[in-house]
Structures are given as structure tokens and as C-alpha cells.
Amino acid sequence: MGDDSAEAGRDGGDGGPSDPLPEHDPETVAFLREVAEEIRAESSESEQLANILYRTSDIYDADEETTPEDVIRNVKFILEVKERGGLGR
Q1: Backbone angles phi, psi at 73, to 5 degrees
Q2: pLDDT one digit per residue (tens) for the chain, 89 residues
Q3: SS3 breakdown of the chain: % helix, strand, coil, rounded to 5?
Q4: Do 81 and 87 meet the contact criterion of CB atoms below 8 Å apart?
Q5: Contacts 24+ apart (CB under 8 A), 65-68
Q6: Best CA proximity match to 36, nearest among 67, 21, 58
Q7: What is each CA distance from 73 to 2, 27, 56, 76, in whole angstroms?
Q8: Which one, of 27, 28, 8, 26, lies nearest residue 18 by Cα?
Q9: Is the overall model pTM greater than 0.85, yes or no?
């Protein structure tokens, strides 16, 4: 059927330390970052989504030491900054 080990942490896992990290995948990195660049300048919401996509791509980037938990924390921060109206407030 296929290799289930790569999907083990993605289907139904609780995101805990025992769940495996996604495999490094340059194609996924490139795709997520390309989409992020395409939508970046359309509106403040698309800028926010672009930042989230770019941060998510770091999980798949072999040059980054990012965990899904890091991304979740960063996404929460991005949303909080948006809610406050910016970094300076």
C-alpha cells in the first residue's frame, strides 16, 4: 500500500514529541514559498497568510531547525499582532 511511516505524525497524532517530524522536502518548501510570494502584496490578510505559509515551509527546509510547535507559536504571534493592529501598539 505505501509507506505509512511518513504519514504517522500527520494523521491523528496529537503533535506531541513522539510524533515524527515531516521529511525535508525541497519541492514542498519551494511550492509554499512560491504561493506566499504570489499572494503577499494583495492585502494585509494575504500578507499575514503569506507569512504563515512561509513559516510553515520552514518545517520542510533542511536548512531550518523548526518544529511544528515553533510554527504554531509563530502563527499565534502573527495573529495576535494582527489583532492588536501592528507591532507598535
Answers
A1: -60, -40
A2: 444 444 334 334 444 555 677 889 999 999 999 999 999 887 888 888 999 999 999 999 999 988 899 999 999 998 888 788 877 65
A3: 55, 0, 45
A4: yes
A5: 67/21, 68/15, 68/21, 68/22
A6: 58
A7: 32, 24, 11, 5
A8: 8
A9: no
Placement of cell 512560491 in the chain: 34
Alpha-carbon distances of 31 from 4, 13, 36, 46, 85, rounded to whole Å: 23, 25, 9, 16, 29
In three-state secondary structure terms, 52 is helix
Length of the chain: 89
Report the amino acid identity of residue 16: G
The b/e string for 43-63 (b: 16+ C-beta within 10 A; e otherwise) is: eeeebbbbbbbbbbbbbbbee
